[in-house]
Amino acid sequence: MLKIGINIIVFLCWTQMVLAQNTKLDDLSEKITNNQVLFKTDPQKAFKEIDMLLDEAIKLKDANAELRILSTRYEYDYLLKIDFEQMISSANILKDRAIVHKSLLYEAKSHKYLAQTYSFNELYDKSLEELRLGMEVLERADAEDAYIIMEKANIHTAFANVYNLKNEYFSGIQSLLNSVKEHEKLKDPELKRGTKFMDYTNLGGAYLKVNLDSARFYANKSIELSTPEETDHNLMFINYLVIANVHLEKKEYDQALQFLKKAESIEENKYFLNIKELYEKFISVYDALGDLELKTKYENKLKDLSLTVTQNQNKTLRKIILDDKEQQQPQKSKSNIWFWGVLVGVLVLVVIIIVVRFKKEEQKETSLTPETYNSLIAVLKKNDQTFLLTFEKEFPDFQQNLLKVCPELSSSEIELLALIKLGLSNKDIAKYKFIQHKTVQNKRHIIRKKLNFTQDEDLNKWVENV
């Protein structure tokens, strides 16, 4: 599935430049705009200029320029570095400075940025909460202001991105339609055309899981709205990728390959999750066409990219968890007492489970004890994000071994395999994770597919030996 959230960022510099042209640019503002133009051709050089521009803004006590630069720095982190921890840091700095300067626009942006970073790490509830906070901030701002209209639309698009990641496709489409409604309020004709260019791209990606004809329709509509200067735009990359997906679903491999190559030829900075999507589709097409050499080439590219992203996700997740623990420290002792009290009632049953498990694995080396098992279950019952980290302390090689076998496994899939490793049934997993039993079954099916299991292979037995 395409990750449409990138369209918020890749289009932002363009919209800022169009809006800026409607006002008199001072020297520093013009430098920032030029830096954003430079990012399209030489992103590394543009990134290096950011700190110098920030120092100049602070010396001049130019609050708007300072916030604009901090916002741009997050966008560069987002597109260039795949460093989620740095993205969180940049977003929080922007939020703090926006509050100091009483800027509702940039305070809302900071919530949107945090939401995007959380969604990359599959922390969807935290992501949705940040988006709600961002929208609440904007409700206090001038509803007629073009910047506020654009930011409301961006947050609706961010909502759509999270809903799509949660497989709630119709909610995602509705959020995109809310974004379209906001854009209709704009008065600048060129800005309206540009936002339609973006909105149609987003709708094309959203409809891929709902209706292929609609997906292709909106992608083509977006292409029709593009100008000659936008032929190398990131949005064109998405449009080509959407159309390639449609042809691939219809087993029209030559046509799919044609559009994949068009997407690959886009030189403007491309979002890493969409690059992942591109590599996956190349692999599928070359597999269908029997070109093993090119299939292997893109498999290697995908492994390198997946390893980088996974490493940064794990690093960032640890930081998020530590930050949350610091904020919750005063309630720690009371929480522990409450949860240990709940666990007393199931202690006997847990011990029986552990004994049975130990008998099955008596030749395996593990430090798992009944007390440790109880602790893991307690963390799980709280729906606490520290579960996977706690689990890793007892099975330090588990995640690493899984990723060696299948680098494409997501964090949520690794967590599901960890729960299976603990001997939990599908019913228990559904209960503890607050999801439907069918959802667990679907996730197991996706994992089996990624692992290339045959119908006879038992996922539970396989996990026991990891």
Q: Write the element-wise H/E pattern from the N-terminal end onward.
A: HHHHHHHHHHHHHHHHHHHHHHHHH
For CATH, the homologous superfamily of the largest domain is named as Tetratricopeptide repeat domain
Measure the end-to-end span. 29 Å
- Counting structural domains, the number is 2
- Beta-strand segment tally: 0
Structural class by sheet pairing and helices = mainly alpha
Mean pLDDT: 80
Largest sheet: none
Enumerate the spans where pLDDT stays under 50 for 5 or more consecutive residues: 1-14, 17-25, 331-335, 358-367
CATH topology name of the largest domain: Serine Threonine Protein Phosphatase 5, Tetratricopeptide repeat
Describe the protein in words.
The chain is an all-alpha fold and 466 residues long. It has 2 domains: 6-307, Serine Threonine Protein Phosphatase 5, Tetratricopeptide repeat (Alpha Horseshoe), CATH 1.25.40; 344-464, Arc Repressor Mutant, subunit A. Helix content is 77%, strand content 0%. The protein has helices at 6-10, 12-21, 27-41, 43-60, 63-81, 84-100, 104-120, 124-138, 146-165, 169-183, 189-206, 212-225, 234-249, 253-265, 272-289, 292-327, 332-344, 347-360, 370-381, 387-394, 398-405, 411-421, 426-433, 437-450, 459-464. Helix 14 runs antiparallel to helix 15 (272-289). Residues 1-14, 17-25, 331-335 and 358-367 have low confidence and may be disordered.
